[in-house]
Inverse folding.
């Protein structure tokens, strides 16, 4: 049996706030080769996406710091194509794949590829011979015993979980080793020592990182269990977020770096002893199972138990509707859907000196801008969420992630310039990270970039419990 792979679109993904990775999304169809050119071809095509990233460290080692976007796309496409073809041959290809190129897998020196010989990904077609039975297709994450096997530390083999590392300063070296091991395994760890940037407001940046993470690892030792100060604040924030999770969710994992007591506040969580022989395997299993449960949870189930019963509760909201609770660990913070529009410009930021910038979309692409309003219905001040994760589905069945310029105000392909007052009033502001007083509101926008010949149909955002129909 033969399968034909057709790569349709490549899209630059938003800048990664947890790492310095450069990431692109490749959208492709897999078709039974016998149907190519037949009337049934389009209807039978299985649509897929692969996100491919390269770490800044490997980019530097390969001396690609100043490479053009076209060269970077071709390099990532080369590895995406090889990865996809092998997955098809093995019968393990899923709808969504992730691959990260890092120094853990590739040696230092010049880029080993002749970029001039790599084809343009858009429209690339390959015919692949496969010999597996159809019933071999596909599970998102393998069950045991494979799940329980020691993990191979290579990119692309595990879900790209974003993991916050909480630790005492005295354990920085041990936690740094854990950070590197998680990173080599394809996860996205966040560690204050490595990921805070000079000039950032460290307190708010750490709080943001906790809220944006899929999992929280409380790294414990004799240095940390009785330590006062910021580490206790981090654990308290994580416990608050855990209160809003489902009972079956895995979010907060105590990780013992050495033989030590577990603080009383964390004793109800089963801990992992990293210093034991099977500690690393057990930690990986906990992360995998946690991510699998998140993937299997219906969107409607993510809503906090505090959400009151609604006549309007349904699997999707529409323009004009009010979603009663959004964000992680937010209480009675509602979101009203105001409208959406197509545009050839979008406003991003704030950047330098708290200034907003206007960006022009790339050729043959357009921006989709969803406008909404947050309203604080609670008795206390609370911060509005940032929608950095989400996708829009188009009429052609493709998905495109939340957009932001990959290089910020240095993204030359989007021709950035300071925004005018009119642009700010009509298109500006994400509405995120606003300290909203009780009964106050703020407007915000989320932006997607899609091909100009496609129409948006539905939006899903990671901190919104229902899909949003763009009727």
């Amino acid at each position: 049996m033969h399968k034909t792979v057709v790569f349709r679109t490549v899209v630059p993904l938003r800048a990664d706030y947890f790492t310095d990775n450069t990431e692109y999304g490749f959208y492709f169809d897999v078709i039974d080769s016998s149907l190519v050119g037949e009337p049934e071809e389009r209807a039978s095509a299985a649509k897929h996406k692969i996100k491919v990233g390269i770490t800044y460290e490997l980019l530097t080692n390969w001396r690609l710091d100043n490479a053009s976007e076209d060269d970077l796309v071709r390099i990532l496409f080369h590895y995406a194509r090889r990865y996809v073809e092998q997955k098809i041959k093995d019968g393990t290809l899923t709808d969504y794949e992730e691959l990260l190129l890092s120094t853990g897998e590739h040696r230092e020196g010049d880029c080993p590829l002749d970029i001039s010989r790599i084809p343009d990904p858009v429209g690339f077609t390959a015919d692949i011979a496969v010999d597996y039975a159809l019933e071999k297709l596909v599970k998102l994450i393998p069950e045991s015993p494979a799940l329980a096997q020691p993990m191979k530390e290579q990119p692309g083999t595990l879900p790209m979980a974003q993991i916050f590392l909480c630790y005492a300063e005295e354990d920085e070296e041990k936690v740094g080793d854990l950070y590197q091991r998680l990173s080599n395994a394809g996860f996205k760890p966040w560690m204050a020592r490595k990921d805070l940037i000079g000039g950032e407001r460290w307190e708010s940046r750490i709080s943001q990182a906790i809220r944006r993470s899929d999992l929280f690892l409380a790294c414990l030792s004799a240095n940390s269990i009785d330590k006062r100060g910021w580490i206790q604040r981090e654990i308290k924030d994580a416990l608050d977020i855990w209160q809003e999770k489902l009972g079956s969710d895995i979010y907060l994992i105590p990780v013992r770096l050495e033989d030590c007591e577990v603080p009383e506040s964390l004793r109800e969580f089963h801990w992992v002893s990293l210093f034991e022989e099977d500690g690393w395997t057990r930690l990986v299993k906990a992360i995998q199972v946690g991510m699998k449960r998140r993937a299997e949870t219906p969107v409607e189930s993510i809503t906090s138990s505090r959400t009151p019963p609604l006549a309007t509760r349904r699997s999707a909201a529409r323009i004009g509707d009010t979603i009663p609770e959004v964000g992680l660990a937010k209480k009675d913070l509602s979101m009203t859907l105001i409208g959406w529009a197509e545009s050839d410009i979008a406003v991003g930021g704030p950047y330098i000196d708290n200034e907003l910038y206007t960006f022009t979309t790339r050729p043959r692409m357009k921006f989709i801008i969803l406008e909404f309003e947050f309203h604080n219905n609670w008795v206390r001040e609370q911060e509005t969420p940032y929608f950095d994760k989400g996708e829009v589905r188009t009429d052609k069945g493709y998905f495109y992630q939340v957009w932001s310029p990959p290089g910020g105000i240095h993204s030359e392909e989007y021709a950035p310039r300071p925004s005018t007052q009119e642009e700010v009033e009509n298109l500006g502001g994400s509405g995120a990270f606003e300290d909203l007083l009780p009964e106050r509101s703020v407007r915000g926008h989320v932006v997607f970039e899609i091909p100009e010949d496609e129409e948006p149909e539905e939006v899903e955002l990671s901190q919104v419990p229902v899909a949003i129909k763009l009727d």
